[in-house]
């Protein structure tokens, strides 16, 4: 089960990177301040990024919960936490960028 979640995280990180790229291209073509119609166009993009981020956090939480119930003397527990930490560290910049994009995007929509 854990391998399946790790695979889902990899797929999700690829989707997040693609959605980030698409959003940044779109915002470059249509910089704020936005009209009401442009806000309506950007809002689903921002919501999709938020959904990606929420899914990421949910999958990480599932893995951490799975690792936490493992016995402390089980070598697999340490390996699981190492894998989780590696995935989180590898994608840290992407996650940080998404959080910033979401906050800025929501601010632009509220202008």
TrEMBL record:
Coiled coil, from the record: 46-73
Keywords: Coiled coil
Protein name per Swiss-Prot or TrEMBL: Uncharacterized protein
Native source species: Panagrolaimus superbus
């Amino acid at each position: 089960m854990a391998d399946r979640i790790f695979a889902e995280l990899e797929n999700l990180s690829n989707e997040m990177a693609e959605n980030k790229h698409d959003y940044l291209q779109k915002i470059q073509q249509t910089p704020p301040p936005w009209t009401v119609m442009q806000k309506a166009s950007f809002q689903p993009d921002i919501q999709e990024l938020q959904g990606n981020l929420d899914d990421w956090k949910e999958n990480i939480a599932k893995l951490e919960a799975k690792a936490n119930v493992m016995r402390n003397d089980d070598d697999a527990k340490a390996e699981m936490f190492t894998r989780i930490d590696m995935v989180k560290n590898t994608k840290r910049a992407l996650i940080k960028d998404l959080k910033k994009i979401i906050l800025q995007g929501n601010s632009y929509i509220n202008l």
